[in-house]
Amino acid sequence: MRLNRVQEKVKKKKLDGFLITNLKNIYYLSSCSGSGIKVLLTGKSALFFSGLLYDEEAKEKVKEPFRILSKIKPKFFKGLRNLGIEENSISLKDYRQLQKLLPKIKLVPCQDFVEEFRAIKEQEEIELLKKAAMATKKAFSSLAKELKPGISELKIAGEICSQLRKNGAEGESFPPIVASGARSSFPHANPSEKLIKENEPILLDFGGSFKGYQSDFTRTLFLGKIGEKENRLNKLLKKAQDLAIVRIQPGVMASEVDQAARDFLKTAGYGKYFIHNLGHGIGLDIHELPFISLETKKRLKPGMVFTVEPGIYIPGWGGIRREDTVVVTETGCEKL
């Protein structure tokens, strides 16, 4: 059980309690989340502070062994000497309020306390991620048929949002990235009024969500006849992605997967144009553990889900990126 695993970690880290403020972590453990909600775990208890806004919803969604309370009070922390907090999500304002509320308790900053568990997906989570990915794939197929010169990037972004919902997604995982021509060398470009044209790269990066789980997908399209340079770069990226995917299996360092794609692009003369990590975990958050980078010295495990997205970005010309999501299996990986 998710809650039991986190409580065991609280005891293992010799903490008297752990306060969860990250809303995705709260949802992961309780199936309920909302602004201002907090969860206090000890080795034996689980308190869900709903606030008045979410009190009724929490009573419907949050199950035992959670105890639902509307407001945090000092008495609920009685007997605690040290309290773990999520340093990546707690605001300075909340931190100071905690210090004032609990002056005799030592606050212990912790990193990725719950996120480490979230990095290994259960089968039910993988099925939800597959549904989000399928809705995204269908939306892309529908959109690609409708693209034509003269449509603005902003209009395409709007159509992406519409197609995601038409094809089963409950919403967008993030605002769609649509960048054409020289603007496609901006990896996270915001859509503009620019009209798309023939014979230029059109970078599309988007994803749909399903029951809280996200998807992330990128392709670079060309209207009209694809040029020799564009065709060569497209094939190089596909090869770089394939080489990385072949390396994915349990026990392999995440850095080795990044290295496989990066070395290939460097040998081909485009290493300096690959300016970001190869991938990132995906689940309740669009970016979560594990991160597939040269700096990540952690081994892959079955159930990890992450993107593989090599890219080449040439200032003044444009960029190409190719992104798919995979799940690590017992023998390798599977594309979602």
Automatic annotation (TrEMBL):
InterPro entries: Creatin/AminoP/Spt16_N (IPR029149), Creatinase/aminopeptidase-like (IPR036005), Creatinase_N (IPR000587), Pept_M24 (IPR000994), Peptidase_M24B (IPR050659). It comes from the Bacteria. Residues 127-330 form the Peptidase M24 domain. SUPFAM superfamilies: Creatinase/aminopeptidase, Creatinase/prolidase N-terminal domain. Residues 2-120 form the Creatinase N-terminal domain. It holds the Pfam family Creatinase_N. CDD domains: APP-like. This is Xaa-Pro dipeptidase.
